[in-house]
Amino acid sequence: MYTMKFLTVTFVCIALYSCSGKSKKNDKPRLPLQDTVIAQAESRINPFSPIDVSPMDMSYYPVDYPKLKMTNTTVEPLIARIIYSRPHLQGRELFHGLLNYNQPWRLGANEATELDLFRDVTIQGKKVMEGRYILYCIPQADKWTMVFNKNIDTWGLKPDPAKDTYRFDIPITQTDNRIEFFTMVFQKANGGANLLMAWDNVEARLLFNF
Amino acid sequence: MRKSAVTAVLLLLILKGFAQSDSVSIPALDKSPMDMSYYPVDYPVLKISDKVPDTPVARVIYGRPQKSGRPIFGNLVEYGEVWRLGANEATEIEFYRDVTINNKKIKKGRYTLYGIPEASIWTLIINKDTDTWGAFKYNMKNDILRVPVSVTAVKEAIETLSITFEKAKSGCNLLIMWDTAKVVLPILFK
After folding, report:
1. Do A111 and B36 make contact, defined as CB atoms within 8 angstroms?
2. Three-state secondary structure call for residue A127
3. Any idea what the Cα angle at residue A201 is, between residues A195 and A206, rounded to 5°?
4. I want to staple B113 with a disulfide (CB 3.0 to 4.6 A). Which of A92, A105, B15, B93 is the partner?
């Protein structure tokens, strides 16, 4: 009985909240964005391959391409895919001990972050060829240098600058957010898509033009 | 009881508030985290110590669901149904060179790997429709290959689905293990 009541109340609240959230989008101060910290359940011993503390994830453009395909929604052709691992802050601060300015960073954890481009794109007026790259970045106080590199299928710790193919400087934004897990997602943008990188209170965007 | 219900509702609202914003939606961490396995085993690590050839042979990318106390095969994963061999996106297998499986030449490229589990024999399927979710849009006409593989029972149940490679005579084996089931797919480098 209580359970029923509880479920009903929960459901109604969520429904009401969702509606009010939409209609009142702008009249209340924006809460700092924070992803939910989900403590990974301690996985029981797996002798073959334990679960990683920085789990891997992938992001497509068009956003959620595999799901769109499943639901038969008409989508633009597949353009890009990122595969990266998601380290988390665990009480640390991004640029106070975790990352250092002017030191290359693999934009993730473990394996180097991989970008698959399924067609040629243009970035900052430069043509970037279809194909597979690893991405790394050189963070600086006021900008990040994003590097596309052809040394694919590699671990992220020793980038080989001899195989760099493109470099782009992008501005960074300081926010009030505190994003626990490093996040890379594509977002539709004017003339293409942004690759958004967010972690702690820093956001950086690299614009891909199609 | 009522108090805890109210707390729970409040908590949900707070979480919802945090999880949504006008500009960005941050994907939450997945319950079935993604993982990848290479052949040669641990290729990326070996590569930074220059111990391996220029390209790997194969790579699998898959989501890793957990047993969490449930019986898996014949229950959570039904017998006789096409299964994505993982969670979320369908499992991807990529060959960086042509290989031979079950006497059939498989061309270098990216594929989706499905399985149809049964109690003692699974059918593994290599399908050319990639970048897809689950097995919901599985279409047999995109199959490149179907191979029967026999199931070995393992003594101690494996909590997390594991797909890895191991070295084998004239090639490598793809190992798929979960709960008490283990299947092996031989891949020949010729």
Report:
1. yes
2. strand
3. 15
4. B93
DSSP B68: T
CB-facing half-sphere around the CA of A39: CA atoms within 13 A: 2
- The DSSP-derived string for B147-174 is EEEEPEEEEEEEEEEEEEEEEETTEEEE
Q: Which of B27, B61, B64 sits opposite A83 (nearest CB)?
A: B61
Are A33 and B26 a contacting pair at CB < 8 A? yes
- pLDDT(A65) > 50: yes
B1 inside 8 A of chain A by CB: yes
Cβ-nearest to B162 among A17, A46, A185 = A46
Domain range annotation of chain B: 30-188
Q: What is the pLDDT of residues A89-98, one digit of tens each?
A: 888 889 887 8
CA distances to A26, A60, A70, A176 from A166, in Å: 40, 21, 34, 31
ipTM above 0.85 for this complex: no
**Residues B65 and B32 sit within 8 Å (Cβ to Cβ):** yes
pTM of the model: 0.80
